[in-house]
Please model this.
Amino acid sequence: MALLEHFFSSRTQGPTFVTTAGIGFYLERMFEESEQRIVIVSPYIKMSMRIRSILLEKRKAGVPVVIVHRENFEHAEVASEIFTRNNLHAKCFLTEKAAILGSMNLYDYSQMNNDEMAIYLTVKENAGLYESVSQEVSRLCRDFPERKSVQSRRENENRGLCGLVPGRKYARAELKNWFSFADDHPGGIRQTTRGNIVLFCSSNSPYRNEERDGIIYYMGQNTGSAVQMLKYGNKALYDSFEKDRGRIFLFRDEVFLGECTVCMKPFQKDGKWIFPLKLRGEGNMTQPV
Model:
């Protein structure tokens, strides 16, 4: 690393053409040196443990970490704000001091295996170009309606906010006014583009959910095998327990029972994943989830 740092520090401050190793070097240095803001524009994200650690430390130090992405990703806790853009293809990493524009997603496999190219530039040496990049990044954050504050979402989760009325029947079509579903499949576990989960159960379904002592033992999603695999909706529910990700909304026979949590560690029984759910208190909410 010392040799690599000497090599890059001896070069001009840009715009500098870099390949995969250079992107990784400048990326870490930019994040570590940032004192005012970090913006990550990447359609697909799978952070290395080192990048995640750096970003978490920056957030704890009060540096805003803003992420613009296309698909849901793990470790969203590193971000202070997240923006989802379904048509995102650009890749850009920006701090108050520098920017990288190139081909690489913030994806650990890409950093280790892909042939990538990028341009690195600093605000000190390339103020005009940096300002153009910064303005476009601001537009990606400002103009899209699916902006969400991670902190606000967590506060809402803690308060159990939901404007859906427990005990009221909702047609599936009507729920599109409340939830931005990630797909149109009719299954019992449906994920939203905002990282939440909507659960459906039916009295006529072969999937029988036991209820004991105020806990609903929700049976997981059929994954096409005798033993259910931990993927699709099962993975989302498991992550909700392990990583405190997303909010969960439960319906039975189209009647909204309320918002709930996975209250105990999920387990397998007779090849089926079982997710213990407990209903939480309800309040009011006016925004789609």
In short: Confidence is low (pLDDT under 50) at residues 1-11, 143-148, 152-161, 282-289. The longest helix spans residues 127-142.
